[in-house]
Here is the input.
Amino acid sequence: MRFYANVTGERPGNIKFEWKLTNATIDSGQGTPTVAVLVTEENFGREIVAEVTVLGMDERCPAVANDHYSVIIDPGPILVDELVIDPQAPPIERLLIVAEEHANNKTNQLYIIDYVLSVYSEFEIAERHRLIKDLLVERGRVPRASITIVAAIADEPSTRLYRVPPGVSNP
Here is the structure.
């Protein structure tokens, strides 16, 4: 992250910039019009304030300015449940709990990663996904457009169901 100071009008050649930061550390640029800020996990969720004093200006000119920036992180998707889905006896009650979680967070996408064995055919995978989606739509009243299902090959079958708020990265 960087903060910039812009001096307009007639500018003396010997001006210097003195930066002070709150809730952050200057990485480089002290004394120049641009300061780079070192952002670490400690800064997440905090407001960083930069204040610059321009030294060497005519005393009639404003010499101090400040700006702020809040550091926000992508909290990532929320794991709602992880289970093994047997198409012969699907865990309907657990899928309904996931549907209820979506009902309480209607703007969220349900993102499902279905970890399957490499011996599964494309047809078997498609049937598993149809079963999961149909149960969530028909029994859980989740809009079909709110469900994304992807398959991944794994040594052990399992299914992870995530809730992804708007603006958050998919798992």
Summary: The chain has a mean pLDDT of 91. Strands lie at 2-4, 16-22, 25-28, 34-38, 47-55, 64-70, 78-83, 109-116, 147-153, 158-164. The longest strand covers residues 47-55. Helices lie at 92-103, 122-139.
